[in-house]
Amino acid sequence: MLYEHLGHSPRVDPTAVVAPTAVVSGDVTIGPGCQILHGAVISAEGGPITIGESTIVMENALLRASATDPLHIGDHVLVGPMASVSGATIGDEVFLATGSRVFNGARIGARSEVRINAVVHLRTVLPAESTVPIAWVAVGDPASILGPDRHEEIWEIQQDLDFPGYVFGLDRSTPDLMVQLTERYARHLARHADDRPVD
């Protein structure tokens, strides 16, 4: 289903296929030969999403952009089932496996692999032909690629990337951080109340 959001309607190349149960909302461009499978959600929430040629977005994947972090996915990319990509730049011929997570401001170079349940964290930069192993975490610029058992090292780098400040404009030390965050984000998401289906 295609939706107009904030005055923008999706643009889908006539050779692309969007499954009837997929949701594509807002300023989204889907290139030639793309396949958007059942349950996928592609939501441009204030910033554009561009998807290049012959890219496949599999079942229940989530792609999202914001006003500060557009999303660009290159050509011949495979986004696996239940993967989540938010406001990042993904190069050509990248494999984002099942359950992988890519956060705002991340940049993944061409021909890289982010394997099952792996994470590319906020503002992390992976050079071309990188691999993030199953369930590992890439964090920082330049990226450190660390196993999930190395939480203290991951947190040391991640803390400086400032997720609440970068994504939500809130200081981590705010006493009622989650109250501020959820109220601000709910106001932002409420803009979907005016969405309308595109014929």
CATH superfamily descriptor: Hexapeptide repeat proteins
Distance between the termini: 9 Å
Average pLDDT taken over every residue: 96
**Helix and strand composition category:** alpha/beta
Helix percent reads: 10-25%
- The structural domain count equals 1
String of helices and strands: EEEEEEEEEEEEEEEEEEEEEEEHHHE
CA radius of gyration is 17 Å
Number of strands: 24
Residue runs with pLDDT of under 50 for 5 or more positions: none
What is the chains' assembly state?
Answer: single chain
Largest sheet: 10 strands, mixed
- The largest beta-sheet arranges its strands as 23-22-19-16-13-10-7-4-1-24
Shape: globular
Q: What's the CATH topology label?
A: UDP N-Acetylglucosamine Acyltransferase, domain 1
Number of helices: 3
Would you write up a description of this structure?
By secondary structure, this protein is an alpha/beta fold. The protein has one domain (2-161): Hexapeptide repeat proteins (UDP N-Acetylglucosamine Acyltransferase, domain 1, 3 Solenoid), CATH 2.160.10. It contains three helices and 24 strands. It has a ten-stranded mixed sheet with strand order 23-22-19-16-13-10-7-4-1-24, covered by helices on one side. The radius of gyration is 17 Å and the shape is globular. 35% of the residues are buried.
